[in-house]
What we know:
The structure holds 2 protein chains of 2 kinds. By secondary structure, chain A is an alpha+beta fold. Chain A has a single domain, classed as Catalase HpII,  Chain A, domain 1 (Beta Barrel). Chain A contains 8 helices and 10 strands. In chain A, strands 1, 2, 3, 4, 5, 6, 7, 8, 9 and 10 form a 10-stranded antiparallel beta sheet that branches. In chain A, strand 3 and strand 4 form a beta hairpin. Chain B is mostly helical. Chain B has a single domain, classed as Transmembrane di-heme cytochromes, Chain C (Fumarate Reductase Cytochrome B subunit, Up-down Bundle). Chain B is built from 5 helices and 2 strands; from the N terminus they run H-H-H-E-E-H-H. Chain B has a two-stranded antiparallel sheet. In chain B, strand 1 and strand 2 form a beta hairpin. In chain B, helix 3 packs antiparallel against helix 4. Chains A and B meet through helix 1, helix 2 and helix 8 of A and helix 1, helix 2 and helix 4 of B. Chain B: It is a multi-pass membrane protein. Chain B: InterPro entries: Cyt_b561_bac/Ni-Hgenase, Cytochrome_b561_oxidase, Di-haem_cyt_TM. Chain B: Its cofactor is heme b. Chain B: Keywords: Cell membrane, Electron transport, Heme, Iron, Membrane, Metal-binding, Transmembrane, Transmembrane helix, Transport.
Amino acid sequence: MTPKNPPPLNTIFRFTVIGLVVAILATAFAYVGGWLDPGRLTPDRMINTLEDNAGVHEGYRRNHAKGYCVVGSFESNGNAESLSRATVFATGQVSPLIGRLAIPGGNPHADDGMPPIRSFALQFELPNGEQWRTAMNAMPVFPVSTPQAFWELLQASQPDPRSGKPDPAKMGAFFAGHPETKPFLAWVKTARHSSSFVNVEYNSLDAFRFIDAGGTTHFVRWGLVPEAPFTPMTDAQKQDPDFLSHDLRERLDKGPQRWHLIVTVANPGDPTNDATLAWPADRRQIDAGIVTIDRAQDQADGPCRDINYDPLVLPDGIAGSDDPLLSARSAAYSESYNRRTREEAESATSSTQEPRS
Amino acid sequence: MNPRTAVTFSLPARLLHWLMAIMILTMLFVGVGMVATVSERHVWLVQLHKPLGIAILALVIVRLLVRWRYGTPALPADLPPWQRHSAHLSHWMLYALMLAMPLIGWTMLSAGGYPVTLFAGVTLPDLVSPSPTLYSALRFAHTWLALSLFALILLHLAAALYHGLIRRDGVLASMTKGRRKP
């Protein structure tokens, strides 16, 4: 067929239509991608703020940078089977574990005696390629309930270049403007530094959903309760910036370390979207089985190094809740993982001699 | 009939084209959106991204078979050679990216040690063993090829409208309408 030759004005109009269609689509794409929305809290901006606070330590996690890989297993006793159809809870099921014990903060060379908080991340391997990943903290509640507030907390706690410490005035202003931090602050006042990674209780903090065989949903939080009794950090330990890893190796040389996986079930009406609020102490608790850690390995070459402990990598039978921190953790951990694997890849190609972090 | 003399694309080709156009545009918006927010949208967009990607992978294979079976209508004889070459090149690039993007995404997640969960309880097998170096390279490729695919789609759309509005040579109609009566 022969193309017609429309009049010039008409042609200009038609070209304009084409240009507009393309421009509208491109603009919508740019908006969704965050390029036209500088105020949006993106995973990128969250991780940038962590880097502003602690510096860039290539190859390391952007938060909880200092840690150790541990290996062991979880043996289910079947008690949680009625709450969740996840195979990890089947009676007698033994799931291999790759874990990571760490302290908070973005500095991989931090002094173990500084923060009173320790963290425990676990990856349970299930049959059929499923996994359950969880990243728990040794504290009863989270300081804030939203990603935005967490970002503001990070900004407020940025170290002052002169003192190297957060500006107390900024911190004070943040806490004054965020009354939801009160339960956390009350705990910090009484918190004692433990002598070990293995004698503290770790909590999921965020709520999750367990889905049972009948499809019914149960809101839960979980935690690890240690068999080793709590003892506080000693004066000798205060002199050793790596006392937690030294203690861990000493204890594992003597034998495996154990925790009970305790599942707490919410009552109707308990807050599931607010990690700053603990549930009342009388809630039903189920001892689901034993987490055993047999050995530890340096994170530079240990099996936990390349695992992103994204709390939303969950098997069938466990799902996220309406807690807004969960999606933010998932998104931000992923960005941290992307950055550190890129750095690992770069260091692997630039030098095969130097040990990677 | 000889596929080369067909005036329009076959019905299966047209259905696949428009279905996949919606799916791929959705996929690209989901992709850039999910990595640009820490809100709850992140979670459900990621959950949508994986099964949608696998569906696109399955459909593009069907589509290549349909193309092979039914052929494509010839371009207008008076189309300038550079436009003819651009048309062929861009179409094969579109097919290559439609095929590559889901495969890269799947391999990338395997290399990162992530289970590729499509729906609760449905986890795809790992294509490779975990490797941070491979993960990092594929993660980079996934982003930049996605942006290239989007740019190519804009070009494709502009060219289709150019055929439909400026040249009015039946090329756009070959994908929008059924075969015309002679």
